UniProtKB/TrEMBL annotation:
Its cofactor is pyridoxal 5'-phosphate. It comes from Streptomyces liangshanensis. Keywords: Aminotransferase, Decarboxylase, Lyase, Pyridoxal phosphate, Transferase. It holds the Pfam family Pyridoxal_deC. Belongs to the group II decarboxylase family. The keyword NAD does not apply. One of its GO terms (biological process) is carboxylic acid metabolic process. This is Aminotransferase class V-fold PLP-dependent enzyme.
Length: 465
C-alpha cells in the first residue's frame, strides 16, 4: 500500500463517529462562501453574459488539477464562492424563467445527511434504514395519487424525464413493442425521446390549439388507430401550466381500450391542496403518473416519482445480479432493491422528501402550493393593470405569459437577453398563438407583491431600450 509522504495527513472522512467533527469547520467555510458569493452577485444572475461568467470561473478553477493541492479550506472557499457568484439563484424573486425551484433549507440539510451517509440504494446491505424509509415514503406518495383501497406503489427517479421513460417502458412490457403513444402538441419532449430510446413507433401527435388535449380530437385519432395504445396526458404544461381534462380523457381511454399515463411533473403536488386538488380530478384513473417534487415540492434535485396503481405493475423492472440480490438472500428476507429503478447506484434522495413531508405535513405543503398559485394570479392582475403589457391568459398553475403590447417578437427576445446579460431578471420564453411571450414561472413562496411589481418594471425598462 502506497502511503502519503511523511508529514502529509490523510484527508478525513465525512462519515463515522468522527465525521461530523471534520465537517463542522468545512461547513462554516462553505456557508461563508455561499453568502459572500451571493452578496457579490447581488441579483438573480451574474452580470456580463456567458463569456464574462466563464472567465471569472476559469480564474478561480485553474489549474484544475495542480501538482500540489491548495488544501480543503482554500479549495472550498475559492470554488464555492465562484460558483455562488456565477449562479442563477432560484431563491431570488426575479429568477422566474423555469421550473427551477428554490429548495427548502430543511430539505437541503437533509440532503447533506444523505451525502454524508452515502447509502447506495441497490442492495439492502448498502442502505438498511434508507431502503425501509423509501418503501414507506413511496407508498405514502402513491396513496395520494391512488387513494382507493389497494396496493399502489411508486419509485423514485431523477425527475420527470426518467419517470416518463419508465412509464413508456412499463407500457411496452405490458402491451408489446408496437404500443402506439398518442399525445398532444403540448406534451413534454421527454415523451417523444423516450419512445425513440425504447424503439417504439413515433408518437401520434394530436394538435392542441387551445393548449390542452381536446377530447373530441383525441377520440377521432383513437378511432382511426389499431393495436395497443398509450395516451399521455399532461397536468401542467411547461409553456403555460395548463392541465388536460383528465376525467374526460380517462373516459375515452376506457372506451377505446387505451392505457393512460399522466405527466404531472408540474401539477402533481396540487393533490395535497384542498383548494386546488379538483384541478386533477380523474388522475387516479391513470395507469401511471409522473410527479416531480423538485418543482412544486421545493426539493433539491433530484426528486422525481413514478406512481402506479398496483405494485405488480412494476414487475417489468425486476432484475437479478447475484452479488446484489441473490435468490437465496431474497428468499431469506433481504429486500430486493434492484427492481426499484433502472439505475444501480442511487443516492438516498428519499431522506430530503421524508423530512419535508414530516416537518411541514399536508397543510404546510398545501400552504406553499396555494401561496405560489396566488402569486401567479397577482402577477396576472398587475400585467392587466398595465396598458403597455398584454396578458396571454389567466394562469392555471404558476406560469404567467405576457408581452409588450404590439411589440414584435424580436423585441421580446432581445429584451429577455438584455435582462439576462444585465443579471437583473431571469425570465423564460414561450411561443403561443404564433407570438413570442415572456414566461414567468413563480415558485418562490417568499416573493412579495413588491417583488412582482419590480419584475414588471424591469421588463418595461428593457423593452423600451
Amino acid at each position: 500500500m502506497r502511503t502519503p509522504p511523511p508529514g502529509t495527513p490523510l484527508p478525513p472522512l465525512a462519515g463515522g463517529a468522527h465525521g461530523s467533527d471534520a465537517l463542522r469547520p468545512l461547513l462554516g467555510t462553505v456557508l461563508d462562501a455561499l453568502h459572500d458569493g451571493a452578496a457579490e452577485r447581488g441579483g438573480p444572475l451574474p452580470a456580463g453574459g456567458p463569456d464574462r461568467v466563464a472567465e471569472h470561473l476559469r480564474t478561480a478553477a485553474e489549474p484544475v488539477l495542480p501538482d500540489t493541492g491548495t488544501g480543503p479550506g482554500e479549495a472550498l472557499r475559492t470554488l464555492v464562492h465562484a460558483l455562488a457568484l456565477g449562479a442563477a439563484d432560484p431563491a431570488h424573486p426575479h429568477c422566474a424563467a423555469h421550473l427551477h425551484t428554490p429548495p427548502l433549507a430543511l430539505a437541503v440539510a437533509a440532503d447533506l445527511a444523505a451525502s454524508v451517509l452515502n447509502q447506495s440504494m441497490d442492495s439492502w446491505d448498502q442502505a438498511p434504514a434508507a431502503s425501509a424509509l423509501e418503501a414507506l415514503v413511496t407508498r405514502a406518495l402513491a396513496d395520494e395519487v391512488y387513494p382507493a383501497p389497494g396496493a399502489p406503489d411508486a419509485v423514485l427517479t431523477t425527475g420527470g424525464t426518467e419517470s416518463n421513460q419508465l412509464a413508456l417502458l412499463l407500457a411496452r412490457e405490458r402491451h408489446g413493442p408496437t404500443v402506439q403513444v398518442v399525445c398532444g402538441d403540448h406534451t413534454h419532449h421527454s415523451v417523444h425521446r423516450a419512445a425513440w430510446l425504447l424503439g417504439l413507433p413515433r408518437p401520434v401527435t394530436v394538435p392542441t390549439p387551445t393548449g390542452t388535449l381536446d377530447p373530441a380530437a383525441l377520440d377521432a385519432v383513437l378511432t382511426a388507430l389499431r393495436g395497443p395504445l398509450l395516451v399521455t396526458a399532461t397536468a401542467g404544461t411547461t409553456d403555460t401550466g395548463r392541465i388536460d381534462p383528465l376525467s374526460a380523457l380517462a373516459d375515452l381511454c376506457d372506451t377505446h381500450g387505451a392505457a393512460l399515463h399522466v405527466d404531472a411533473s408540474y401539477g402533481g403536488p396540487l393533490l395535497l391542496s384542498p383548494t386546488h386538488r379538483p384541478l386533477l380530478d380523474g388522475i387516479h384513473r391513470a395507469h401511471s403518473v409522473t410527479l416531480d417534487l423538485h418543482k412544486l415540492g421545493w426539493q433539491p434535485v433530484a426528486a422525481g416519482v413514478l406512481a402506479v396503481p398496483r405494485t405488480g405493475d412494476l414487475a417489468p423492472l425486476a432484475h437479478t445480479a447475484d452479488y446484489l440480490n441473490a435468490d437465496d438472500d431474497t428468499e431469506a428476507g433481504l429486500p430486493d432493491l434492484l427492481g426499484r429503478s433502472l439505475r444501480t447506484t442511487r443516492r438516498a434522495d428519499v431522506l430530503k422528501i421524508a423530512v419535508t413531508l414530516k416537518a411541514l405535513g399536508r397543510t404546510g405543503i398545501a400552504a406553499l402550493v396555494d401561496r405560489v398559485l396566488d402569486a401567479a394570479q397577482l402577477l396576472a392582475d398587475l400585467v392587466e393593470d398595465r396598458p403597455g403589457l398584454e396578458l396571454y391568459e389567466r394562469p392555471t398553475l404558476t406560469t404567467v405569459l405576457f408581452r409588450p403590447t404590439g411589440a414584435p417578437d424580436r423585441t421580446v427576445a432581445a429584451a429577455r437577453r438584455t435582462l439576462l446579460t444585465e443579471g437583473t431578471a431571469v425570465l423564460g420564453r414561450a411561443r403561443a398563438d404564433d407570438r413570442l411571450w415572456f414566461k414567468a414561472t413563480l415558485l418562490n413562496p417568499h416573493a412579495t407583491p413588491g417583488d412582482l411589481d419590480t419584475l414588471l418594471r424591469l421588463v418595461e425598462g428593457s423593452t423600451r431600450r
